[in-house]
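Human: Can I borrow your eye for a moment on a structure tokenisation matter? Separate attempts, laid side by side, tell us more than any discussion would. Could you pick a protein and write out its sequence and tokenised fold? No explanation is needed for now; the record alone will do.

Assistant:
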Amino acid sequence: MSTGERVPRAMEKDMATLAAPEQTSGLPPAKSPVWAPILKWALVAAAVILCIYLATQLADKGYGLAVVGVAFVAMAVLVVYGTRRNVPAKYLFPGLILLLGLQVWPIVYTAATSFTNYGQGHLVSKEEATKQDIAYSVQQVAGSPTYGLSIAVKDGQDVTSAPLHFLLTDEKGKHFVGDAKGLQPLTGKTEMGIGHLKSAEGYRVLKLGEANKRKDLANFAVPTSDGHGIKASGVSQAFEGAPTLKWDKAKNTLTDSATGTVYVEKDARWVPQSGSASPLPVGWKQGVGFKNYTDLVTNDTIRKGFFGIFAWNMAFAILSVLSTFVLGMLLALLLNDPRIKGRAIYRSLLILPYAVPVFVSALVWASMFNQDYGLINNLTGLDIDWFGDPWAARTAILLTNLWLGFPYMFVVCTGALQSIPGDVMEAARIDGAGPIRTLRSITMPLLLVAVGPLLIASFAFNFNNFGLIYLLTKGGPFVGDSAQIGSTDLLITYAYRLAIDGTNPNFGLASAVAVVIFIIVALLSFPGFLRSKALEEVN
């Protein structure tokens, strides 16, 4: 046999060995435990069942797009985990779902809300708002009876979501049961309480707390044969009433039969077409385009407050990062000197402020800044109104944040300094570089490579440092007579006050502020990350 014939056979043998290594290793192929596939399919089934449950709940509430999303997730679970393929996807899929659900979706929803008038008095659709306005106009029909009322559901049904039933007792002592279909005599055993039924066979009478939790109670009415409805008056009485408002969908108007007032649609609310009547109480949610964004720059009150808050917000974030970094770095440089004895003890003591919860430290500092009884004024002999003067309040916030933030920078800088190779520092000393030159030309560039991204993250954190502002000043002192704009407000606390804490919450405008915050932080952080990358490439 020639050499030319032996080489292909050797190569063929090697290829066979690579293709089936388990046959040449002498070991039998690994087998998964019997319980492994059972557990896998049990988890897949549980995930699919959970998706089906969520889809039905969302469908009941009319969220069609969300139902499609949940159905897509269920199919993706079957495709990814129901086959032996797509092994990387089996590990990436949970993280991807969490990323979409906890990061991407809130951003998308906030951005979408910023283009609406969503807020106090504008929470539901036009049809739902109109039905609520009509329900509020119901008045008792003259000469109609008053009933003793017990609110109930059928036995065995959920007290929070099951269809409501009214157990009624008229002035003659007769008992009736009414639901969304109508009124009929009540049969079966009953037990009378004070003015209303205490129990009835086949029904579960709701307690006071359970009845108050039913949001559908305010709009629920038992229809009567003459076109009226029996509504609850509290939780123990009911009356036969009829609405005074009538909705003409063709003309898009509401007419009040009691006063003759005609209401027309304006700014997502029913307002009187003429006269001095007040608008109806319930408005509806609708798109307003870029109105919330234009209000930030055109509305005098909002514009002045927004730009003033933005200027302080930038100054606070920059000064907080610089002050905490400089102090933390100087302490790290000091304790990095091997000649200092007991460095471990000093480092442990300097980390203590970072170990104490922020809300505890903030409240302690708030008490120390008290003008009359605070430790700072008492020790220094000053009489500064720290939380009544705008500049004093800002100074107090920066000092408190310096105390809270420098330990983090100290720990980071200590780790970065200890990672600098000793031969680099030794080479600098041999070349005759002094301490200042070594710090400027060697230590700082190498330090910034490690700390640079953390400084950017610290800037983003302080730009949205809601907890510190809210615990110390709540955004005050407030400017002039405005209860919305504070001297120490950040954009995030301003958005919170607009959305939740104000007298007239406006979720749409607050969402616009949140989107602006997101854009600002992104634009400011991107160049910083590019600069950090350049430093890393140089070093």
About this structure: The chain is about 55% helix and 10% strand.
